[in-house]
Amino acid sequence: DGGITQSPKYLFRKEGQNVTLSCEQNLNHDAMYWYRQDPGQGLRLIYYSQIVNDFQKGDIAEGYSVSREKKESFPLTVTSAQKNPTAFYLCASSPAGRNQPQHFGDGTRLSIL
Amino acid sequence: GNSVTQMEGPVTLSEEAFLTINCTYTATGYPSLFWYVQYPGEGLQLLLKATKADDKGSNKGFEATYRKETTSFHLEKGSVQVSDSAVYFCALSDFSNFNKFYFGSGTKLNVKP
After folding, report:
1. Cα(A23)–Cα(A72) distance, rounded to whole angstroms?
2. How far is Cα A44 from Cα A60, in angstroms, rounded to an integer?
3. Is residue B111 within a helix (H) or strand (E), and if so which, with residue range?
4. Which residues of B touch A109 (CB under 8 A)?
5. B44 contacts A90? CB cut-off 8 A
6. Which of A19, B13, B34, B83 is the most exposed place for a label (fewest CB within 10 A)?
């Protein structure tokens, strides 16, 4: 079955440490996205990529970095510069074109040790 | 600019009751509108969508109509079940801006037996 796989499901970060969240899709979608979700709130866009080797900052990119070396992969690194990283992180993808929905993975919950 | 406003939750209903979750939007162009559902600890799942004015999206007994005159996309279901308990997100996509999604803050639905 096609879908989006996020790993790990739970992740713990120590102070001053960078951590990388994995996102892989086998839907052959061109666009991929990273969102942050805080309790009781909507989704905020961190980064997005419309094609391989290209990505843009979203609304809250500070303290995060991404790469898009392959169409199916879009890893997110939470750097030590992100002072409040505890949140639920969601990866999504969508086909190119108008009216296309975004498809989501099951998320990674990041906590501070 | 673009934004989505949802009714505050939680909404608590008894099984078989009628459900309405209000959603209104502000958009600069001609957005597509979506409802997503999120179960605890999971990602968002597409519930339904509508791509132009007066379109009705429907799925699993849920429906919503794209009302341009009132800038609304209210979610309805005639008879809710305990299994419908989840958080529901209204969203719009702006194709003029790389298909960026704008999400509401979510409405939690609790259905009691």
Report:
1. 8
2. 7
3. strand B107-112
4. 41
5. yes
6. B83
- Report the distance separating Cα A26 and Cα A43, nearest Å: 23
Distance from CA of B17 to the nearest CA of A (A): 24
Backbone angles phi, psi at B27, to 5 degrees: -145, 145
Structure tokens at B94: 């702006």
- Report the C-alpha gap between A91 and A32 in whole angstroms: 7
In tens, the pLDDT along B62-112 reads 999 999 999 999 999 999 999 999 999 999 998 877 778 999 999 999 999
The reply to whether residue B42 touches residue A40, judged by beta carbons under 8 angstroms, is no
- Nearest CB partner across the interface for A90, out of B43, B49, B95: B43
| Amino acid identity, position A80 | S
Residue closest to B76 by CA, chosen among B47, B102, B52: B47
| Chain B nearest CA to A80, separation (Å) | 25
At B2-46, the pLDDT tens digits run 999 998 889 999 999 999 999 999 998 889 999 999 998 899 999
Closest approach of A94 to chain B, Cα-based (Å): 9
Q: Where are the beta strands (DSSP E) in chain B?
A: 3-6, 11-14, 19-21, 23-26, 32-38, 44-50, 56-59, 62-65, 75-77, 86-94, 100-103, 107-112
